Amino acid sequence: IRFNNHEHSRKIKAWVQDNRTYANLGKCANYIPALERANPSQLGICIIGSNGSMVKMGDFDTAFTLQSISKVIGFIAACIDYGISYVLERVDVEPTGDAFNSIIRLEVHKPGRPFNPMINAGAITVASLLGGRNPVEKVESILLLIERIVGRYPTINEEVFHSEWQTAHRNRALAYYLKEMGFLDCTVEEALEVYLKQCSIEVTTEDVAMIGLVLANDGYHPIRKEQIFSKEVARLTKALMVTCGMYNASGKFAAFVGIPAKSGVSGGILAAIPPRGRSGDSPFMDGCGIGIYGPAIDEFGNSVAGVMLLKQISREWDFNIF
Ligand code: GLN
């Protein structure tokens, strides 16, 4: 990896400064007590290009928990372990337009298969079928996949995990319903342990950017020079990110930003920018991964300043995939 100190670093610096002011329009998630203590005015970004160039700006070094971004990794891990068709027997690939933790459609969509793996019902189902005989081994399959991508075995933030565990009433309700419908491969408590631990994995914007980079390159890791997962899994995952990755703001995000992305309530955003044939003066023609952290989130659960920053970058550098 080489650091870039050119023209575009100066541009990103200015964009981070400008968009940081939007943080005022959001608030840190407060339903998980440990997340409420984040500094709402932070905004940081890391971009890693397929050619190994890297730009980091703002509060790029703050550690944060993956939260819903882990749904992407869990889905990929399950597809690696069991194959796409097995996973899709348990979870569909349709957006809902409802909140991430919504319970309402489970019964509507006969025979109860969760709509997609990017909402809680789908992610809890996927967590339950991960490879491993117990919750520790199932979480391990996610941790090991992250290690293969970022080159470091990540830790779980135990405080966030316990905080979530004690307040996961709605997730428990979802899991009990899923269990009753026969979608879970383990007990309710085991599925919740896996799901909430994967949400509590601690990362920085660089880790997230590296995951985005591999997705941008269809599962190939251009820095480690290794195919981590198949092109089919990468494409399916990016399609899910475009249609369902930004919760029930995914439509607007696709329309006005146009980048496969996944957000989490801690304020993280994972984005994958595929190689572009023609990209104005973008320094990332060969594709890149982006990790953003901005803990002040909007009513949907997306980082307010983070979305605005991505929107500006997409516009300036012609990153819109459509
Ligand atoms: N742990 C969180 C939950 O299930 C993750 C949600 C999110 O990031 N949207 O409530």
Automatic annotation (TrEMBL):
It is an enzyme of class 3 (hydrolase). Signal peptide: none annotated. Substrate binds at S68, N120, E164, N171, Y195, Y247, V265. It catalyses: L-glutamine + H2O = L-glutamate + NH4(+). Transmembrane segments: none annotated. Keywords: Acetylation, Hydrolase. Its EC number is 3.5.1.2. It comes from the Bacteria. GO terms for biological process: glutamate biosynthetic process; L-glutamine catabolic process. InterPro entries: Beta-lactam/transpept-like, Glutaminase. One of its GO terms (molecular function) is glutaminase activity. It holds the Pfam family Glutaminase. Homotetramer. Belongs to the glutaminase family. This is Glutaminase. It comes from Psychrobacillus psychrodurans.
